Amino acid sequence: LSFRANILSHVLTLYDPVLRCNLTAHTVRLVATRRT
To answer: Origin, by domain of life (predicted)?
Structure first.
């Protein structure tokens, strides 16, 4: 269980910047659409 949780944590840390980047791009897109 600990080993699996460790792998899951590592994967989440790996994907965190990607998710954050996508979220930022999505927010920017929403703001840009709202301004137009």
So the answer is: Eukaryota
Tokens of 23: 């979220």
- DSSP conformation class of 1: -
Cα gap 10→32, rounded to integer Å: 34
The residue with greater pLDDT, 33 or 1, is 33
Q: Rounded to whole angstroms, how far apart are CA atoms 33 and 18? A: 22
Helices (H), the chain: 2-35
